TrEMBL record:
Lineage, top ranks: Archaea, Methanobacteriati, Methanobacteriota, Stenosarchaea group, Methanomicrobia
UniProt name for this protein: 7-carboxy-7-deazaguanine synthase
Chain positions recorded as substrate binding sites: I15, Q16, G17, R30, T95
Gene coding for it: queE_2
Organism annotation: Candidatus Argoarchaeum ethanivorans
Residues where Mg(2+) binds: T43
Function: Catalyzes the complex heterocyclic radical-mediated conversion of 6-carboxy-5,6,7,8-tetrahydropterin (CPH4) to 7-carboxy-7-deazaguanine (CDG), a step common to the biosynthetic pathways of all 7-deazapurine-containing compounds.
Location of the Radical SAM core domain: 21-247
Gene3D superfamilies: Aldolase class I (3.20.20.70)
Family note: Belongs to the radical SAM superfamily. 7-carboxy-7-deazaguanine synthase family.
GO MF, one example: 4 iron, 4 sulfur cluster binding
Record InterPro entries: 7-CO-7-deazaguanine_synth-like, Aldolase_TIM, rSAM, rSAM_sf
Amino acid sequence: MLQCYAPVDEIFSSIQGEGIYAGAHQVFVRFCGCNLNCSYCDTLQALAMDVTHCRVENTPLCRDFSTLKNPLSVEDVINSIERLWSSSTRHVSLTGGEPLLQSVFIKQLAEGTDYPLYLETNSTLPFEAESIADVIDIAACDIKLKEHHASDNYAALFDRTLETIQEFYNNCEVFIKIIILPETTTDSLLPAVKAVADIDSCIPVVLQPVSSHALNTLHLIELMDAAGEYLDCVRVIPQMHKLLGLL
């Protein structure tokens, strides 16, 4: 089999700061490129495909980076993961950008390693999701709301999101993450909540307040209560890695 190559922004060790696995030690592989342009994006450096070099941490959590020329081979990525893996590491987090744009690479990566794969996805590429869902252990699936301004055609985006989530639900552990903006209302949130409940009301849903604004606890509780009418597991979890000063 010919070895795949992919543009990668960075590979590093850190503590997962989002979702139901917040606090878990992971090795992060941040792929370049994204098919969306969300208003709150905090990884703008990873949006472009033409990043010339990938920075790779040499020692876990030490921020001692060297560089590799893009695109990276599967072997390059596996070697970097092996160097950063330690006894407390639990998963390889495939993030971005949007990692599903590199689905062929991820499939080959999974064939070359036994490390548990934790995918962080915007959930808008169902065909690519179908192609790798069986090699993913945990899928952290975003649902975009209208106020995120991720696409000019929100209805089509939402349909693709539900298809993507269903693919992962059929094959691996899934939880949902929804970014909460100050302007998010129960009316904008509930279509997403009801759609998840139609798949399985036991799927955990995380309401993640956007980090660029101060927390409004009453607002979050109002949204949490509304979601709780339909879902068995709703949590409010901010970005913990930013509170810890980590990548």
